Amino acid sequence: MHAAQALTASQGGQTNRQTATLRLVQAAQRLDPLAKALPVELADQAITSEDRSGFELSVLAARKTDAAWMLTLADAHTAAAQILAGHSKHDPRQGVYPTTDLLAHPDESTDPANGIQTPTPALIEMDTARSLLAVGRKLNGSSGTIRTDVSQNAKSHQEATSALIDMVVAHLSMAMNLGYPATSSALLQTPKH
Predict the structure, then answer these.
(1) What CA–CA distance (Å, rounded) separates 138 from 42?
(2) Contact between 84 and 142 (Cβ < 8 Å)
(3) Exposed end of the chain (fewer CB within 10 Å): N or C?
(4) Which residues contact residue 28 at a Cβ distance below 8 angstroms, ignoring those fewer than 6 apart?
(5) Rg of the chain in Å (alpha carbons)
(6) How far apart are the first and last CA of the chain?
(7) What are the two backbone dihedrals, phi and then psi, of residue 14, each rounded to the nearest 5 degrees?
(8) Nearest Cα to Cα of residue 124 among 57, 26, 169
(9) DSSP string covering 68-112, please?
(10) Alpha-carbon distance 55 to 61, whole Å?
(11) Which helix (H) or strand (E) is 62 found in, with range?
(12) pLDDT by position in tens, the chain (length 193)
């Protein structure tokens, strides 16, 4: 969370959307080490989260005339899901997800984690970041490093951890770029399920 805040602050508040999108695209392209390290249950969670976000952004883009950037962002999510699915034993992607809430609030939505009104694309990014953070929490041992098979070396550990962190920071940075509040109290809230 703090890395994304620092990144946003170092670039004078909200970063340029193109730069934030490029960061997300590049982070997605480096997910292979994480994909190899994820057990099935966590892979399913990460894959579904990325795929659903790509679908939702595509739906929103179809409703706007100036949304080429949103399609690029949707493609980054879809590419991340594809890379993660490439090492999974099965493919949990549904391709199509419910759109009732999305279509009811295409411009602004209320974040269920904290009640903040935020642009809907920003909330999609925040939800994806939170999902990946949950994957990281389940995957991390008490030492704060990713638990993987004993046969994997320290370099593989570090690469998988870096890939996850880079992707979370990219999603958080994009969420802030799209209008999600950059305050710690907003970012650190987790949904109460």
Answers:
(1) 8
(2) no
(3) C
(4) 76, 77, 79, 80, 83, 167, 170
(5) 16
(6) 21
(7) -70, 125
(8) 57
(9) HHHHHHHHHHHHHHHHHHTTSSS----S----HHHHHSSSEEE-T
(10) 10
(11) helix 40-62
(12) 556 655 555 554 445 778 888 889 999 999 999 999 888 999 999 999 999 999 999 999 999 888 888 999 999 999 999 999 998 888 999 989 999 999 999 999 999 988 999 999 999 999 999 999 999 888 875 344 455 454 556 777 788 888 999 999 999 989 988 999 887 656 555 544 3
Per-residue CA distances from 184 to 3, 16, 114, 177, 193 (Å):
11, 21, 12, 15, 21
- Tokens at residue 62, please? 């179809």
CA 89 to chain centre: 22
Q: String of b and e for 27-36 (b: at least 16 CB within 10 Å)?
A: bbebbebbbb
Running DSSP on this structure, what letter comes out for residue 12?
T
Residue type, 180: Y
Q: How far is CA 141 from CA 5, 21, 136, 148, in A?
A: 25, 31, 9, 10
Locus of tokens 């659903």: 52
47, amino acid identity: I
Rounded Cα distance, 47 and 90, in Å = 11
Give Dmax (Cα) for the chain. Answer: 51
The number of beta carbons lying within 10 Å of the beta carbon of residue 68 is: 10
